[in-house]
Amino acid sequence: MSEKKRYFMKMSGKKVYLSPINPEDYEQYALWINDFKISCGLGSSIGNYSLPKEKEVLERLASEGHNYAIIDSENDTLLGNCSLFDIDQINRKAELGIFIGEKGNHNKGYGKDAIELILSYGFKVLNLNNIMLKVFSFNKNAISAYEKSGFIEIGRRHESYLVNGTWYDDVFMEILSKDFKSSYLDEHLPS
Predict the structure, then answer these.
(1) What does the DSSP 8-state code read for residue 122?
(2) Is domain 11-129 classified as CATH 3.40.640.10?
(3) Of 58, 61, 147, 151, which one is least surrounded by beta carbons within 10 A?
């Protein structure tokens, strides 16, 4: 009997592919989201994420919107997820969210590849014009990765996140379709 497939390649980059979220990954996500090193950077460190709660969250994400698991192309391993949310089709704008779960997988290009894929999808398929994100000012590695992907800082909400007695800013960044260059998805789209 063949093993049940966990992930389905929606779109593929150089290092990763994006798959619909699999709610059966709830144990892995619960492990990540309950890790302070990860949850603090996401702004969710005050939450308590049980297995049933995380499964419920993943079931909701899997059934709505544009939420994708980030999968390592070499070994079909779950790395994290990314989403386009708060999509406004009339004004052609959305927000991007992403995280890579294991610290050992940070700074290896997985996040950058996933961002390029989801931006390609947002601009080339969903016909968006403006995609923005929010990141905390202490997350210098993420800010640098976003800048390398073409995002620019558009403003800050100062002293809006208090952790361990220190205030940090919300940093807002955006990228416009005219400033985004990638050949990802081109081979699958009419030219």
Answers:
(1) I
(2) no
(3) 147
| CB of 89 closer than 8 Å to CB of 71 | no
* Residue boundaries of the structural domains of the chain: 11-129
Determine the Cα–Cα distance for residues 114 and 68; give it in Å rounded to an integer. Answer: 10
Q: Which long-range contacts (CB under 8 A, 24 or more apart) does 142-150 make?
A: 142/41, 143/171, 143/173, 145/111, 145/112, 145/115, 146/115, 146/173, 147/173, 148/112, 149/112, 149/115, 149/116, 149/119, 149/175, 150/119, 150/175, 150/179, 150/180, 150/181
Count CB-CB contacts under 10 A for residue 4. 6
Please identify which residue in the block is written with the tokens 């949850």. Answer: 39
How many CA atoms are closer than 13 Å to the CA of 103, on its beta-carbon side?
6
How many angstroms separate the CA atoms of 69 and 18, rounded? 6
pLDDT tens across 116-168, in order? 999 999 999 999 999 999 999 999 989 999 999 999 999 999 999 998 899 99
Q: List pLDDT tens digits, range 38-66.
A: 777 777 667 778 899 999 999 999 999 99
Tokens of 84: 């386009």
**Do the beta carbons of residue 100 and residue 70 sit within 8 Å?**
yes
Quote the CA–CA distance of 38 and 36 in Å, as a whole number.
5
Residue type, 133: L
* Total Cβ atoms within 10 A of residue 145: 20
